[in-house]
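Service request form, structural biology core

Requester: graduate student, group of Dr. S.
Request type: structure prediction, single chain
Budget code: on file
Notes: please return the result as structure tokens.

Sequence provided:
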Amino acid sequence: MELEVFAAKLRTLRQRAGLSQEALAARLGVSAQSVSKWENTANWPEAALILPLARLLGVSADELLTVPTSREEWEKRWQEIVGECRQRGDHAALLALAEAALKDWPGDWDFRFRQASAEYQLAALTEDEPEREKLLRLSEGHFSQLLRESPGNASAGAMLIQILLALGRREEAKALARKLPYGEQLVLILHQGQERDDALRREIAKTAVELLNLLQSEGSREACAITAAILASAGEPKTLIWYRLNLQLQRSRLACGVAAEAALEALEEMIAAAKAYAAPAPASEADSFFSELPEAAAPSEVHRWVADVLAEECFASLRELPAFSALEREAALLPA
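Core staff response, request fulfilled:
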């Protein structure tokens, strides 16, 4: 193993273990300066320190000294099996692969998200209640950590809300939802009975005005018709989310070519709304009011619809931007 590779791996493992250089040095009985030298490729630890160092970092000596498989290779392995595994419900295989990748790349956000998602899916499939709760709590811990690192991340937040609901912690789920993109719409789903109905009416009135102000100036009769239909329906929360999704799509189309930043922001909000739509549904579903969207859309249909939107020609000028690539990655995480 090259000293540079070892130094980077040591730093990552130390940070994952929650240890400062000083704390690690104290436990090994060496100076903090020695640890700093190891991490800055000045020299290697003494051979006698390798085993206790590995134990403190929660890995074997072999793992500490093994050259990691490249991130690209792990991603290739994941893409080779993910479709088939999901189709047959083999989330255990996905979990095993994610955990193996994290041994080489412990700080990788995507594989940590995949690990936590596989834990949640396994919990949903098991009939053993203690095992189910164990998996849910593991997944909760992993998603909570991801959310602390990326506050407001809609993907991690939506998954954590589902876990809290599965654990019967509805109020915590509602509190979390308010901190996320489209938080108020997520809260609508979590409301019950009259509380939900009142909140829904307030949100419908607010967003109806927003849509009219935005699109009526464009002479859009369709916008007025959609707004009138939604106001008349007093529909279920998912109707409102479709409505928000459509609003953000229209915003992005209007802004595209004029204000790239505004278009990207609207597309980001559209994807957040799509994720909210794919979240656990109320018992009653309302029909979609948008001809572009399928009625009673399954998560896979939402995934395809968002992919088609991002492929539209009107967004061609945005495709070279890093922010657009990030949106495509977010969209790829929608349930397929």
